Amino acid sequence: MRLQSSAGDFRVKVIAGTRAVLMAIDCPEPRRIGLRGFAFQREVVGSGKPAKWLRSTKVFKSIEPDPKNARDPHDPTQPKRFYTNEHPVQSFLWGDYGAEPNTTYRFRIYPMYGAPGALEPERPVSFEITTEKELPRSGEHGVWFNRGAIASQYFAEEFGNSAPENIDDPADPRVRWLSRGLLEACLGYINNTPATHGLRVAAYEFTYPPVLEALRRAIERGVDVRIVYHDTTTAKGKEKRANESAIAKAEIPRRTRAGKQVFFRRTKTKIPHNKFIIRLDANGEPTEVWTGSTNFTSSGFLGQSNVGHWVRDADVAAQYLRFWELLRKDPDRETARAGALKLTPDPAALIDEKSIVALFSPRAKANLLQWYADRVEDCASSMMFTAAFGVAKQIAPALAKSRKLLRFVLMEKPATTAQSSVFRKDRAHLVLSYGVPLGEQYTFKNGKPVARRRIKDFELVKWFLEEEHYRSKNDGFVFFVHTKFLLIDPLSDDPLVCSGSANFSSNSLLQNDENVLLIRGDTRVADIYVTEFDRLFRHFYFRDVANELEAKGSNAKSIFLDEGNDFAWSESYFWADGFKSLRRQMFFANPRPTWFENAGSRMGAPTRPTTKRAKRKTSVAKKTARKAASKTRATGAAGT
């Protein structure tokens, strides 16, 4: 949900996802003089509870010189909390990440003037906004992001950086906090599938007991469950027999009581990287699909950032079922490539408005990387991108191209030395962030980031709690960022969301089993992705900047609020071509031409809305695809 509100010289653009509300503020430049920041007040409409001030992350040093050790005056055993009415937010962008789904909130944002300790609020910008519901209705999307931020002050404060007492218990407080609804949604998807209905699973890492046990119980109550999974019998190291051992421990039968085969090994591909579950109705017709980046592992749900994406669209589900039927036969690479390309040909630049396009891999060529690069060049207002394993060489030039619009990239690790040199060409508009706790920095070897090391005598420990990921340091391949999505003009009325299991790499297209959804024109989906991207990006961006400044000898003064009478904190928000100024303007812009019109110009094609005739052709094609899927099932392809 989106809205805009104003009071006096101040205006606010608000975007609500499911569990986050993003607020961008704007005002004429003269009004920044004397402005100490903004105070945020929130109440739940209809709850009967009073409005509350939101908490601060920084304080005025003249008032609280030692915030880490300050104690609650009413309970000295507890740390003191700081709130924005006394220590305001010195930013024109703020996110409330403590929201609940499908809830109406009333916010008041007060511009705060005066001196620290004697602040005077001006008339607030007030508005009501309702967060998106999580469970999708027919034809809608449900989207869940886990916390993906174990390296955080909250986790350090509440849980002491320690792992859940029972990582396999969905009710464990740490599990619930880390999952943030993602695990509950996946389990609900399985548990609420009625008897006589069906589930078709495609799994890569398949070891998390809560998910495996839910599938076993589904079989026991009469759900027709079939599972394509990665054969780990010949894997090496920790992966060897990992899936087989977990399946045996969960006591999932290899055949049902009726003698139907449950498991189908995937052995003839480099990485069978899918993580999706298709639902079938009592007639065996596909109705919906659960997909996204989340492996069925504890780290998938609770550690690295991940998304679960539930699509209640029978046409999309039918495509996924046909893909599942292809994989069930364990095709060799060439057969899989031919089948995936037949099911989902390379898309045109001008995909239909209000449409969903599925893409499956492996493919014979990596043409889609150029397709993504072209969409990056086409964007008109902003781009947001998560690149867990770095940025492909085909996409990097489009990202680095100098343009007066912001591109945000969130990675697992810093870019390589070679790629950083390319990205520095437009540092004002291309903003990079990567996963890391406070007080740590990556070391480089041969130009590539490798292990993390602790920064000695880290100044910020005076103000912040020490952070650590509860997994052993450098144990594992992906700690922080595992999502794989690309957002093109997500703040516009015609956003493009590209999300799935594939890492926007050549290997993901040419070698692996993968799936991606291209979702055009769905502002509800875009709003959820934008608010979650903002949460993750800024969470790690703060740590990146703090760590790098500290490593260069900074004393980290920026941890305190600015108290100077020159109000320097707000100056950068009004520089003509500065990053913060462009970000402030980005939320209120309505650029022309749009990304879609730019794509049309690139192709020399018209960009008028899809005609009724074209829509009818698309509808006929979808019905044909569903009939073909039904015919495949009728011939006994499910493997009895």
Task: Write up what this structure looks like.
- The chain is 27% helix and 24% strand.
- It is built from 16 helices and 27 strands.
- A seven-stranded mixed β-sheet has the order 12-18-17-16-13-14-15, sandwiched between helices. Strands 19-27-26-25-20-21-22 form a seven-stranded mixed β-sheet, sandwiched between helices. Strands 4, 5, 9, 10 and 11 form a five-stranded antiparallel β-sheet that branches.
- Helix 7 packs across helix 16 (612-634).
- The protein starts with a strand and ends in a 6-residue tail after the last helix.
- The model is unreliable at 607-622 and 631-640 (pLDDT under 50).
Defining traits:
7-stranded mixed beta sheet; globular; 640 residues; alpha+beta
Gist?
The protein is α+β, with helices and mostly antiparallel strands and 640 residues long.
In helices, the fraction of residues equals: 25-40%
Major beta-sheet overview: 7 strands, mixed
User: Count of helices?
Assistant: 16
How many β-strand stretches?
A: 27
Q: What class would the helix/strand composition place it in?
A: alpha+beta
How many angstroms separate the termini? 46 Å
Biggest β-sheet: strands ordered side by side in the sheet: 12-18-17-16-13-14-15
Low-confidence stretches are 607-622, 631-640
| Computed Rg | 25 Å
